[in-house]
């Protein structure tokens, strides 16, 4: 497989992923306009915990499926992993319902508003169960290079979710106000429940679309293969859980626990501000996720070829180039992106956006680096890396949040991802050396950061000193000059590399 093949798969997976994320992204302004800061904080807390439970529910079986489908009979691995997830998901769902009372009346349950609306818990459990059951079917489509069907199901999921959101939050309230009192009364106090219900319906429809594919599986369970897969995948639980400490635990636990004061409403509002601005960093996250979806099966297949390390190094360089461009695309135009937040009370949190963008750049590079321990079956080492950075995350958040508030959480996220990336690179060069173009990668990243902070300094002192996020023509013009200048710099530095790429190569060669 070539970079052209990877690019094609990433475009397909990326299109479905980015389109679904963007569509969902545009729901956020609706939420911010309809909901109070405290309510948005409640919902953000819930959605911060779901990834943790999803990791437990899938326990690394998706990655194990990719790994062992190369070594064993693919149908045996497919059926074994599917049966394993089916039984574990049913068991875990029953367990969650059994402990429903203690969960919804816990501190987190109260912070999430579950104690006053127990039915919300049912919707959330269904979301997690449906998503866990579709993990292997999605992985099967990726392994079999069927990105079109993957994209169709993914988009159907999100369009259904959005459709129900609009129905419950916009259409039904208007009809109710017009006199159709037989419809549910969707008010600020119960809006969140309808958001969860919409998500559950979308995930359920995706599972229904996978049923024909799942019914074609030969239902055979190979205990020996299952044990090998578990031995490979169990460390990935710790790897994933520790990774989630960095990714979502700031909203799930660090901010509620370490923010000064005991007023729960104030904490919910601050979490709401933080979560809303965190969404602005999602544009770079969408690209990372799209790349990850296309790259994981590609890397495993590439490992079977001759000298795959050179290909990995080349991919990393191009990946960093794109990350740097996206970092500047968001950070230089924050005065445009602020319209996404809808209400001025969220604007003070925009100072965290460049920090979170940089953090996500480090995270994307880390995902690219992790291939060494997946290919060498050193998943336990990968788990240890993320556990170490999870401990660092706890210490930094404990130190910085009481002093700097939610900016401390953003800064801790960036430092942790940097540490995680650095440790992974050092160990990877020891166990699976890859000739990464380190001088150029560092040059592009440092130049991108300096470009933003130079613009930021000019904006604060000359262009818009009174309101740095004001939408002024001069600020936009200077930002565009800086952005185009950086792209020109990249094209000059990587003209040969870009000219070899499909589609854009013929345009770059003329520069």
From TrEMBL:
It comes from the Bacteria. Keywords: Cell membrane, Membrane, Transmembrane, Transmembrane helix. It holds the Pfam family Polysacc_synt. InterPro entries: Poly_Biosynth_Transport, Polysacc_synth. Signal peptide: none annotated. It is found in: Cell membrane. GO terms for cellular component: plasma membrane. The chain crosses the membrane at residues 12-32, 44-65, 77-99, 119-139, 151-172, 192-211, 232-254, 274-294, 315-334, 346-369, 381-400, 406-428, 440-458, 470-491. It is a multi-pass membrane protein. The keyword Nuclease does not apply. This is Membrane protein involved in the export of O-antigen and teichoic acid.
């Amino acid at each position: 497989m070539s970079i052209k093949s990877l690019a094609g798969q990433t475009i397909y997976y990326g299109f479905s992923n980015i389109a679904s994320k963007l569509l969902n992204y545009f729901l956020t302004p609706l939420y911010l306009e309809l909901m109070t800061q405290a309510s948005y904080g409640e919902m953000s807390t819930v959605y911060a915990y779901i990834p943790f439970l999803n990791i437990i529910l899938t326990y690394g079986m998706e990655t194990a499926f990719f790994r062992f489908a190369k070594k064993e009979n693919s149908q045996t691995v497919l059926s074994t992993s599917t049966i394993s997830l089916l039984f574990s998901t049913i068991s875990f769902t029953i367990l969650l319902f059994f402990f429903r009372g203690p969960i919804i009346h816990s501190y987190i349950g109260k912070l999430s508003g579950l104690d006053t609306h127990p039915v919300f818990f049912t919707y959330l459990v269904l979301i997690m169960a449906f998503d866990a059951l579709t993990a292997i079917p999605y992985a099967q489509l990726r392994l079999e290079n069927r990105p079109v069907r993957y994209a169709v199901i993914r988009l159907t999921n999100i369009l259904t979710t959005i459709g129900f959101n609009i129905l419950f939050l916009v259409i039904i309230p208007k009809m109710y106000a017009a006199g159709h009192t037989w419809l549910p009364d969707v008010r600020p106090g119960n809006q969140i429940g309808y958001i969860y219900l919409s998500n559950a319906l979308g995930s359920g429809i995706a599972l229904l679309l996978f049923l024909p594919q799942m019914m074609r599986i030969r239902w055979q369970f190979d205990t020996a293969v299952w044990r090998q897969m578990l031995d490979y995948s169990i460390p990935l639980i710790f790897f994933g859980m520790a990774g989630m400490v960095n990714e979502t635990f700031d909203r799930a636990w660090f901010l509620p626990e370490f923010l000064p004061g005991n007023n729960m409403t104030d904490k919910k509002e601050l979490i709401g501000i933080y979560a809303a601005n965190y969404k602005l960093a999602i544009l770079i996250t969408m690209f990372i996720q799209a790349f990850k979806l296309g790259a994981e099966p590609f890397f495993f297949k590439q490992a079977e070829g001759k000298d795959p390390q050179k290909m990995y190094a080349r991919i990393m360089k191009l990946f960093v180039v794109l990350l740097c461009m996206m970092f500047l695309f968001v950070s230089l135009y924050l005065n445009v992106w602020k319209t996404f937040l809808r209400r001025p009370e969220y604007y003070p949190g925009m100072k965290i956006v460049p920090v979170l963008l940089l953090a996500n750049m480090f995270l994307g590079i880390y995902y690219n680096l992790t291939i060494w321990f997946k290919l060498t079956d050193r998943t336990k080492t990968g788990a240890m890396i993320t556990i170490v950075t999870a401990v660092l995350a706890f210490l930094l958040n404990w130190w910085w949040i009481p002093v700097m508030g939610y900016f401390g959480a953003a800064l801790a996220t960036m430092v942790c991802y940097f540490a995680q990336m650095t440790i992974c690179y050092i160990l990877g060069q020891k166990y699976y050396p890859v000739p990464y173009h380190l001088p150029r990668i560092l040059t592009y990243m440092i130049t991108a950061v300096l470009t933003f902070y130079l613009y930021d300094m000019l904006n604060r002192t000359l262009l818009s000193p009174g309101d740095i996020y004001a939408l002024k023509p001069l600020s936009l013009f200077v930002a565009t000059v800086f952005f185009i200048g950086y792209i020109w710099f990249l094209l000059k530095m990587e003209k040969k590399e870009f000219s070899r790429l499909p589609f854009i190569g013929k345009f770059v060669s003329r520069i």
